[in-house]
Amino acid sequence: MKRLRYLLLGLGAVVLLAACGGAGGTHTLGGTVSGLRGTLVLENGSSTVTVTENGPFAFPEKLPDGSYYRVRVKTPPLFERCSVTNGEGVVNGTDVSDVAVACTDKDWMGPMELEPTLVGGAARVRAAFAGDVPMVAWEEGAAVYLSTLSFGGWSLPARVNVGNAAYPALAGNPEGRAVLAWTELDGGVRRVFALSWYRESWSGPEAVSTAGRAVHSEPRLSMSASDRAALAWIEDDGANDRAAVALFDGHTWTAPYYASPAGANASNPAVAVNNSGDVLAAWNEAGKVYAALRTGGVWGSPTALYTGSHAGAPQAFVDDTGRAYVAWEVQPPGPGSPELSLARYDPQGGTWTTQTNFAYGASPTLTGDAASGRLALFWLEGGALWVRVYEGGDWQDAETLSPAGSNPGPASAAMDASGNVVVTWQQEDSGGVRQVYAAFRQYGGWIKPAGRDDFLSFPGRDVRSPGLFGNPAAAIGEGQALVAWSQDDGSGSDRAGANLYW
């Protein structure tokens, strides 16, 4: 009798469970995705599904009848926002297939002034991301200022120097580090100083250049994802101007190393560092182009890449395989169009190869990602901004980015680890006012300005001309981008401005 009673009790429990929702079995939870250009991860409780294409999707785990579900975006695609419709409810005897996920490209938030301007005349604006923290630095009134964005607002500008300062350089990485460098009078001699940022706080400043030796250029800065940084500048060695380089390992700076040889005057330094700590330095000497590489902790001898006398300022890039690139402009004497030269270093053979007529044009800008080896070269030619992208072992065809109708200025650009690029420049709008423009490369394709009035800066107010240190600056972060510039505030003072792609 006891056994029969236990069996009846067990049967009653099964009936009760069925009445609570078990009788309907299990059902699929899914729907459709539209507008997707990258990779999307959706979640329902602890269950996730990764979606890479538009169309139907379904979670791998089925749900019992009567179960509550709530579908949310766990990880959005880079540079897109995704919203969920019909994502919440209760399974009611059938599969759920009406969850709709719509993805659209992010957009620019609109121009913002980094106020208050302290003395007016903001110039040489620089931009960077330290992790997900946007930051902008600029020169103003013989001082260098910095502003960061957090909780939706820009911080009040903070002065970072003590004495007479100029020429800020700013770089950051996805790990949340940044370096800000500048030149400042120290005992009557201009030297290079630097601050380092990590997890919401700055360390320094620290004098990086040689005590008692005058710096005769603005510093050039490169930073890798592995927290390494390299600074280059031109320094008087007592007899000649030399290209000097100092390295940062995330904690300390090395003593300056003269990459250029004694007995000659160097100018226009460029520098690049990869994640392994390899460093490329390039510079001009009397219109020639030279480069030196530091691999395995040892500097090699300088190499002459161009021995003519008409080269412009070089650009530098080195990837994690040790492959290095230097680009420069050659302006021929007399009539003729300027040409771009591109030199490439092959670490396997240990040799440089130079293509002297890589493209017709001027003012090259070189940017890339050291880990993937991708890079992009921008230049000006025929009243337009052009670009070629190197990926998959080959250069893609040249493409124009600027809207027709007005000569653009030189470009500033940044690339992330996925090959996405943001580039900014200035040119006149349809009313003849200089404005800031930007283009994006997302998922292998370019998004360009629709026309001359598709700009990012304040309407009706002139952006500083390139000759007045007004080139805009670009930075790229994890799914976001930043453009910063200097622009007339309407009262005759130039203020630093910014626009965020968020």
Summarize this structure briefly.
This protein is mostly beta strands and 502 residues long.
3D structure, described in words:
This protein is mainly β and 502 residues long. It folds into 2 domains: 29-105; 112-501, Methylamine Dehydrogenase, Chain H (7 Propeller), CATH 2.130.10.150. Helix content is 4%, strand content 52%. The strands form 11 sheets. Strands 12, 13, 14, 15 and 16 form a 5-stranded antiparallel sheet that branches. Strands 25, 26, 27, 28 and 29 form a 5-stranded antiparallel sheet that branches. Strands 34, 35, 36, 37 and 38 form a 5-stranded antiparallel sheet that branches. A hairpin with a 2-residue loop joins β12 (123-130) and β13. The radius of gyration is 28 Å and the shape is globular. The N and C termini lie far apart (72 Å).
Shape: globular
The total beta strand count reads: 45
Q: State the fourth-level CATH superfamily of the largest domain.
A: Peptidase/esterase 'gauge' domain
Whole-number mean pLDDT = 92
Number of DSSP helical runs = 1
Strand-helix topology:
Elements: H1 2-19, E1 26-27, E2 29-34, E3 40-44, E4 47-51, E5 55-58, E6 63-64, E7 68-75, E8 80-85, E9 88-90, E10 96-105, E11 112-113, E12 123-130, E13 133-139, E14 144-150, E15 153-154, E16 158-159, E17 165-172, E18 177-186, E19 189-198, E20 201-207, E21 220-223, E22 229-236, E23 241-248, E24 257-258, E25 267-273, E26 279-285, E27 288-295, E28 298-299, E29 303-306, E30 315-318, E31 324-330, E32 339-346, E33 351-360, E34 362-368, E35 375-381, E36 384-391, E37 394-395, E38 399-400, E39 412-415, E40 421-428, E41 434-442, E42 445-447, E43 473-476, E44 481-488, E45 494-501
Parallel strand pairs: 2-10
Antiparallel strand pairs: 1-6, 2-5, 3-4, 3-7, 7-9, 8-10, 11-45, 12-13, 13-14, 14-15, 14-16, 17-18, 18-19, 19-20, 21-22, 22-23, 23-24, 25-26, 26-27, 27-28, 27-29, 30-31, 31-32, 32-33, 34-35, 35-36, 36-37, 36-38, 39-40, 40-41, 41-42, 43-44, 44-45
